[in-house]
Amino acid sequence: MVWNPTVMKDWQIAEEAEKNLPTPEEYQEMLGLQKDELIPHGKTPKVDFLKVIDRLKDKPNGKYIEVTAITPTPLGEGKSTTSLGIMEGLGKRGANVGGALRQPSGGPTMNVKGTAAGGGNALLIPMTEFSLGLTGDINDIMNSHNLMMVALNARMQHEANYTDAELAKRGLKRLDIDPKKVEMGWVIDFCAQGLRNITIGLGGKNDGFLMQSKFGIAVSSELMAILAVAKDLADMRERVKHIVVAYDKQGKPVTAADLEVDGAVAAWMRNTINPSLCSTVERQPCFVHAGPFANIAIGQSSIIADRIGLKCFDYHVTESGFAADIGFEKFWNVKCRLSGLKPNVSVLVATVRALKMHGGGPAVVPGRPLPEEYTKENLQLLEKGCENMVHLINVIKKSGIKPVVCINSFYTDTKAEHALVKRIAEQAGARAAVSEHWLKGGDGALDLADAVMDACREEVDFKYLYPLEMPLRQRVEVIAKEVYGADGVDWEPLAAEKAKKFEADPKYADYSTMMVKTHLSLSHEPSWKGIPKGWRLPIRDVLVYGGAKFLCPMAGSISLMPGTGSDPAYRRIDVDVNNGKVSGLF
């Protein structure tokens, strides 16, 4: 059934669609699972990853479809909606299809961005469960992360209060932690700017160690990054050992293993290894697993979810966070390298709105009406903005993939605008299709589904942008020039010093390069739209994540704790006390 999203809100469509939500028994049949491979959890059962992957290890993989986007407006251009639309369109064509999406954070859900459940008739259900905690993975990550901070602060307190001999009686060795070099803070799954900088340990010597501290949002935790890239439980357990919590006064790392908290952290995390099952409104199954930041981490659902999906489905759809210069680049050179999986096609989502912005249109501001340039036909503005799309088509082609451009249709678009974008995309060597999945569900995505299936029939000569043996600074130079279009890279003294140290230490040779920059421009400057020319990428620092094994060159500042705006979503969310139904989610 198709609902009218112009008169029904997303939560209302979800409420109607959930009357036909697959049962655990139906999920079992859809995925070809055995009874003991499905873990009950209300409307959203989990899949026992270890059992499934062991049983199906010799089964050939299905087709691997990645979804990314052009450089977006601050409103986003519909990658999740398109991912669900592709599943629905392929379902209408009779394909055995499913996918994997990230778990949404409570911060954006209760703030201004919304839940990331798609929208209209390309929507993930059960929407309430998906949006409000799902099966508790983020809560497990919060507890695990904060346990490391409990261990750190308690250890610092005891080392301040006891002599070496007294510590030895308690089975402890002095770690000599430098309170000015504590890397981690606490986490909470909301946008709380008032917790960005705090002081803890106020009171007497029994009230903890007095120090400056901080909070980040839960999905920024390194544990979330680890969950996204871990191959299995053993890999996750090993990575937890190496998380750098702080540094000692000699500059040596103090890890979770040094604090003897790594085992307990892994125990808290054990159930997160299993993906949860949700569904499109047209009943295609979709795994939901992990939700890492898209700048300091890969910004995608997990390797584990993709491994299972490729065994269970003939077509498996996965989404990369942010635009192709960040999301696809990390999928290409980090996620695929770690997983050993090779994609068949990449779908590049484009909207007329975003392309007009890149053509010189006025600023797009969340919460404000769109300027008329975006709601009336303007082919000149649109054609100029298509340069951004062509650039990112060429980036995807460098991986050996021939991309499919999805023109995500809005009701303000005109046929002439769609025709122009389609022609330019095809001239650049991509397949292209206009899709109306938001309005019509799978029926609106049939052309897109056909283009994706056609692309999946082609052989892919997949290749990475750089070899793993390439030194860090050279990797960054290649990414800056080949993906962003920069003329080169400028390293500030601190960043250059760190990079030299990492390059000289064989321990970091296999660390992934995880670039940190704005998603609102190909450059480091959010206001530079289209294809910026004549610029160099400045790198001011390099962050290290010892458990996830990431080196993160920073081309701009980053806050791990977003703030809540003046008109957040929680003002409109409520529950019916008579039946427990939640309203107001979007």
TrEMBL record:
Listed name of the protein: Formate--tetrahydrofolate ligase
Name of the top EC class for this enzyme: ligase
Pathway linked to the protein: One-carbon metabolism; tetrahydrofolate interconversion
Keywords: ATP-binding, Ligase, Nucleotide-binding, One-carbon metabolism
GO molecular function annotations of the record: ATP binding; formate-tetrahydrofolate ligase activity
Keyword hit for Cytoplasm: no
Similarity field: Belongs to the formate--tetrahydrofolate ligase family.
Annotated EC: 6.3.4.3
GO biological process: tetrahydrofolate interconversion
Tagged with keyword ATP-binding: yes
Organism: Acetonema longum DSM 6540
Reaction(s) catalysed by this chain's protein: (6S)-5,6,7,8-tetrahydrofolate + formate + ATP = (6R)-10-formyltetrahydrofolate + ADP + phosphate
